[in-house]
Amino acid sequence: MTAKQIRVMVLNDMEKLDRTLFRLEQGFELQFRLGPTLQGKHVHVYTNYPAEGERFEHRKFCALDWLNPTGREDDSDKFCTLDLKISGSYQYYFGHGDKEKSGGGYIVVDPVLRVGEDNHVLPLDCISIQTYLSKCLGPLDEWLDRLRVAKEAGYNMIHFTPLQTLGESRSCYSLADQLELNPDFSPPGQTYTWTDVGNLVEKMKNEWNMLCITDVVYNHTAANSKWINKHPECGYNLVNSPHLKPAWVLDRALWHVTCAIADGKYKDKGLPALIQNHEHLHAIRGVLWQDVFPKIKLWEFFQVKVEPTVEQFRTLLQSGAKPDISKTEGKRQLKIVQDPQFRRFGNTVDMNSALENFVSHGSSPGAIEDCCNWLRRKLEELNGEQFHEIKHHQEQATNCIAGTVSYERLADHGPKLGPVTRKHPLVTRYFTFPFEEATLEEDLELINQPEKSCHFLAHNGWVMGDDPLRNFAEPGSNVYIRRELICWGDSVKLRYGNGPEDCPYLWAHMQKYTEITAKHFVGVRLDNCHSTPLHVAEFMLDAARTLRPDLYVVAELFTGSEELDNVFVTRLGISSLIREAMSAGDSHEEGRLVYRYGGEPVGAFLQPSLRPLVPSIAHAMFLDVTHDNECPIQIRSVYDSLPSSAVVSMACCATGSTRGYDELVPHQISVVTEERFYSKWNLQAKPSSPDEVNLQSGIIAGKLALNRLHQELASKGFNQVFVDQVDEDIVAVTRHCPSTHQSVVAVCRTAFKNPKHHRYTDEVPPMCIPGKIEEVVLEARTVERQADSYKKDERSINGMPGYTVEIKEHIQLKDSKVVRQAGVTSRGRSEYVQEIVFEQLTPGSVIAFRVSLDPKSQELVGVLRNHLIQFNPLYKAGSLPDANTPDILKSPLTQIMSNMTLADMNILLFRCDAEEKEDGGGCYNIPGWKPLKYGGLQGLLSVMADIRPKNDLGHPFCDNLRQGDWMIDYVSNRLISRGGTLAEVGQWLQAMFAYLKHIPRYLIPCYFDAILVGAYTTALDVTFKQMSSFVQSGSSFVKLLALGSVQMCAVGRFPALPPLSPALSDVPYRVNGITEQKEQCCVSMAAGLPHFSAGIFRCWGRDTFIALRGLMLVTGRHLEARNIILAFAGTMRHGLIPNLLGEGVGARFNCRDAVWWWLQCIQDYCTLVPSGTDILQCPVSRMYPTDDSKPLTAGTVDQLLYEVIHEAMERHVQGIEFREKNAGPQIDNNMRDEGFNIVAKVNPDTGFVYGGNRFNCGTWMDKMGESERALNKGIPATPRDGSAVEIVGLCKSTLRWLVALHKQGLFPYSSVAIHKDGKQLSMSYEEWDRKIQQNFEKMFYVSHDPNDPNEKHPELVHKQGIYKDSYGASSPWCDYQLRPNFPIAMVVAPELFTVEHAWEALNTAEEKLLGPLGMKTLDPDDMVYCGVYDNSLENDNYNLARGFNYHQGPEWLWPIGYFLRAKIYFAKKLGKDTYDKTVYLVKNVLSRHYVHMERSSWKGLPELTNENGQYCPFSCETQAWSLAAVLEVLHDL
Asked: What residues contact residue 362 under an 8 Å CB cut-off, 6+ apart?
């Protein structure tokens, strides 16, 4: 059972893809998902794909339903889906809000063709088609004898040119009656009907396994069609298209010139009937300019009659008329208004404009006369402009006429028509003229007689370089008057208008024609598709598909651009576009076409069954020659017919030819003039027999073998292609099957030049073929034989009898005449290569080898595929059971991995270079490229995710895999060296890789990818099973963020956390490899990768506890979170938690906020974890029981956690004031002496925690100046001393919680002791809580009232309605800076804020601070704002040097989490409408994080970006708190 194929179309706002081709197969599922620009919006997707059981209607669209797999508010995974079961072209569009359409496009679903009695499927790539000119088949009862040639030559599809009654010209494409079978097919006394044709087609389908298609011609009908005379409105005539009148006048004049030249009337002007040189052409130009143009005065159709117009104007002036300004629309210019009937001097001017332009100064006759004179002069000027424009048209017409005459009568490659006669006029007529000959003057009179002029119908043709989407016969086109049309004088162009209502008869007639065709044929070729009006073809094909849903539609397009081709392919649902090998000028180009038109590269990666829908090129029908192009024998040589056919038949697409090519007919079989019949099949036919052929005729035997091979390759899945240009004439095409790894290699020596006249080299380079040659499938060459020389037969279309094909099929290499020897060489242990030396690969010959892997490789690939079935059922094909399965491979990988911890997963999947180096290793480095981001699987998978969809096998990563086993060994050895379950996974990989090392190197990238993808996806499944239900049932985005927990939380070689109390249960232990002592191995959290991942700089108190809730509590890693909380508790000193942990012994207590984040995490632990309050009773081993203690070993002094919490609170109230231990350059090279003095206290009046000084920075905005040159060294950029807003919020949150815990009997303390002036006082937690509550809004809110009594510094206010960043800073203006810190307080202590004030402040933050991924750290209106962080910059700029602006503008990611969570919280309080808008904002913002993570090779979110989301090279690539904060937003949703 193969997995269902699902393609995902990601919708992006304003993305219009109507010129992009998306091809799908029946049975596929198409999912529409929202791109980042649409996340959160209410998007509706509409499509005209019909609902189950309904008929397809082009204009009937229905909305698709959204499916949200998680069922949560986070619907980033939602999609709507189409199950594709019907072929055709379907449109989709989508809109949101009041925009009905904000993007859209088309999808094309391929038809499924069935053949034979059993109705088996004929894949499109299996098609071998041959074109027949129907008129050359003779009577219907002789058709099978003639068509048998196609059957015996191995074709499985016939293309018939139209079978309808032909027009006078006998051209196959000029049809006199679209509904009537050509009477030529009925012999005397017999009348065949469409039913008889249908029976014949059915017989061929069932008995010969051949399908039939035929042309439909919508553009024109034969000029002598009876129905067009009855219904002239169906063409472009002078009544319904009066704009063609001037062109018709010119056309008639040219006809009279033809008659005059034919009758010798211009002989004395140097223009005889037989035009032979350029002087004659010059004479034609003279006749046109001296006789024709002055006589017919075409300009008069475009001019105004001056005097009557002036008189009309005079009358208006005399009556005092004024201009109506509303009608001139402010366009003052006077312009000619074209007469819609195109009468001579029928044009007018707009009198309103005239009155506005020529204003009379008074009403006196003199003033009016002046005005009239101005107008007269203007009209004469306008007439002059029209005259010049027509003159340009006439110049172009003259050039086109001269060019046509030159080609038709002088050019060597032209038809050389001979003398000018009425049968072969000077130029083809552009219009029909069904009346008696008369003089030109009499002809021109008819223009005014509608009952006659309606029969002057415009002929069809084509225009070089024209826009195919423009109809050249419609108004606005000058093609007919400029004589730019290459005209088909036998056909009338049909005028459909915009829909059936514009020409009911024509639409009905053509629909009937289409239905007859669709009833009897499996497919249609759209003739002249690029100039068939799209809406007409669309309508007709809808009608055809109603009768035959799996209609096969073929077309040849000459638009000149793939984008324009796609317009036709997508709108019409074209299944295959005709391409031609004859378009290649040399063998190199011919090979390139094979590569271009189908297949994937050899050794391509297995693509997942669910993957993005990517644009494709149209499916090709690649023909060696088409029926309306020149004969290859004339252009190349007879010897090239076979090898070029072989190149074509090796293409991974539909292929084919035209009848006559295989018999070597040495001329083009003209669709117009050919009247002879094709020869019949007869096994006994003699070479000289012109009306019979068999396998000895021409290259038929070679074609049979090639067609069989083409069909076998397609049906057996040889869908990988490699084209090798061996030398200038030799092309080798490989077709490879990715499941069996069999190949067929065809080596074709083309002969574009005739070997008789061109010296080809005898030196044919040897070829190396990887693998074991099983057989020579065929070897063939064109040879001469004894026969009469070629004479064109009178009655039959005959080929050259003097050539045949010498062919052998299915022989052993030793029996080959083309190969001299084949040496077997072995390149390394897995490269089995056969070197072929050619003996007789003469021009015109072909040899094809069937190649397998050598038996050992074949067996190992089969076994490897067998082990891969656990990951993907597609590997069943070509798999073999393993007789000697290594023990490690007997268990499925899931079972082995199920024993892994999340800390093990960190090693398996992640670990950056610094972490690996700590263990004595490093990340794998690809020479000539770069090192991988991680040592674990993610490092490899990130690169492969870029390579796989594009099959970029030339990437240095793939090169490295092909060149040696280094990367393979790195992956397994790295894990084996770790011991435990990781070693088992390493052994599993090693055992899988053992097979890999013994298969051909070109296959290693795709199987290495398969093994790693299997291991990686299994690891992810096991990982998520160990996480919370929020993660397990969450969206892909939630899971991606949750992986951040695995990325950041690890056990290093050296313990990063100080040891926990020995009295604590459930602590993980290991044996130290060096000391062989038992030691604790708790998970610690890195602050960010790669800069804060290992050694002393890995663990930071602030970073850990800002990230802990998101990365550990929300993901369900409760025990590890407990251990981290308790480990940090053990390091408390001075009532503070360390900033830099340094394993506790090297801790620095220089931050004021870490302790409050730690307390917030304990609160979150108690709230989120089942029985979470148990942590309060856990023992904490105090490393520093007193401020001056030396570090004590674990277990020396234990306290319960609640006591440590109380100590932290009490110490703050009592006032923390100390100097850092070892103060000076040994612990901080940049800090000034005063900066080492740490203060943290509580204001007794407000309850606010405050502290710091202007020489240190105790909050997360902790940049210390480093530049002596810019004079900022030792100065913090953002001291944030005083009361920082987020610390006040965190303190309030802790107090609220402790008060509640005490009431529940879970926390024994209700107050803190204060020593003041030698007295023992106390303050209750409730009182402290109340003080903050009463003072916060007063002190922190910046009101709109300029006289607010609480405002100490009204002169410093520059933004109102916000919350201060701090209160009581030593530089008061710092308090008033807008920064993203107040939303943190809103999330942890929302009770401090009034809803209206909070909402206004958040909106200001959104407007001023919100960036694409992060929050600006400073208001861009602030004078020191700078959004680009460059830590290496050394200059004189105080505000920038050495990255001084780290927190003065760059956009940090983690605050965005708190901003969005605050928005969600307060939006809920403001009603549904506000909440819905906020949810949209949240989803929209987060979608950018999702996209960033998906594209990031680190699979993380950065620490910060520069302004407007630009990449910052100095940022950590992935940061713990960034991931955590975003995950918490999704948790809140």
From this structure: none
Q: What is the mean pLDDT of residues 1093-1111?
A: 95
The 10s digit of each residue's pLDDT in 1115-1156 is: 999 999 999 999 999 999 999 999 999 888 889 999 999 999
CA atoms within 13 A on the CB side of 1209: 31
Helical (H) or strand (E) element with 1328: helix 1325-1340
DSSP string, 1052-1071: -SS--SPPPPTT-SS--EEE
Q: How far is CA 328 from CA 351, 354, 466, in A?
A: 10, 10, 35
Q: Cα(763)–Cα(89) distance, rounded to whole angstroms?
A: 52
Helix (H, G, I), strand (E, B) or coil at 1434: coil
Can you tell me which residue has the tokens 């009338």?
492
What would the mean pLDDT of 1304-1329 be, rounded to a whole number? 93
How far apart, in whole angstroms, are the C-alpha atoms of residue 1243 and residue 1191?
32
What SS3 class is residue 1283? strand
**Single-letter amino acid code for the residue at 855:** P
Q: How confident is the model at residue 528, as a pLDDT? A: 86
Nearest to 1337 by CA among 1290, 1288, 1291: 1288
Residue 508 sits at the vertex; the CA angle it makes with 504 and 514, to the nearest 5 degrees, is 150
Tell whether the torsion through CA atoms of 205, 209, 213 and 214 is positive or negative: negative
Full-model pTM = 0.89
Q: Is the N-terminal amide bond of 450 cis, ω within 30° of 0?
A: no
Q: For residues 675 and 291, what is the distance between their CA atoms, to the nearest angstrom?
A: 41
Beta-carbon count within 10 A of 316 CB: 17
Contact 366, 386 (CB under 8 A): no
What is the DSSP annotation of 813-832?
GGG-SSEEEEEEEEETTTEE
C-alpha pair distances (Å), 19 with each of 58, 553, 564: 18, 19, 7
User: For residue 385, what is the DSSP state?
Assistant: H
Instruction: Please tell me the number of Cα atoms within 13 Å of 545 on its side-chain side.
Output: 28
Residue 1419's nearest CA partner among 1391, 1382, 1454, 1380 is 1380
The DSSP annotation for 1364-1383 comes to -SEES-SSHHHHT---TTHH
Task: Give the model's pLDDT for residue 770.
Answer: 87
Mean pLDDT to the nearest integer, 978-1000: 94
120-122 and 157-160 strand pairing: unpaired
Question: In a 10 Å sphere around its CB, with 0-12 CB exposed, 13-18 middle and 19+ buried, how is residue 284 labelled?
Answer: buried
Place of tokens 């850092």: 1220
Q: How far is CA 1454 from CA 1311, 1384, 1389, 1451, 1514, in A?
A: 34, 10, 18, 9, 17
Strand-strand pairing, 62-63 and 23-24: unpaired
Q: Other C-beta atoms within 10 Å of 783: how many? A: 14
Q: Kindly give, in sequence order, each residue whose CB lies less than 8 Å from that of residue 1416, ignoring residues fewer than 6 positions away.
A: 1380, 1408, 1409, 1410, 1425, 1427, 1449, 1450, 1451, 1507
Please tell me the predicted confidence (pLDDT) of residue 1008: 97
Least confident of 559-568, 728-737, 825-834, 1329-1338: 825-834
Are 590 and 581 within 8 A, CB to CB? yes
Give the residue numbers marked as catalytic: 527, 530, 628
State the pLDDT confidence band at 828, using cuts at 50, 70 and 90: low
Angle at 103 between CA 98 and CA 105, to 5 degrees: 140
Instruction: Report the C-alpha gap between 444 and 813 in whole angstroms.
Output: 78
Amino acid present at 1382: F
The alpha carbon of residue 151 and the mean position of all alpha carbons in its chain are separated, in whole angstroms, by: 42
Give the tens place of pLDDT for each residue, 630-653.
888 888 899 999 999 999 999 999
User: What pairing do the DSSP bridges indicate for beta strands 43-47 and 120-122?
Assistant: unpaired
pLDDT of residue 1295: 98
Phi, psi dihedral angles at 8 (to 5 degrees): -115, 120
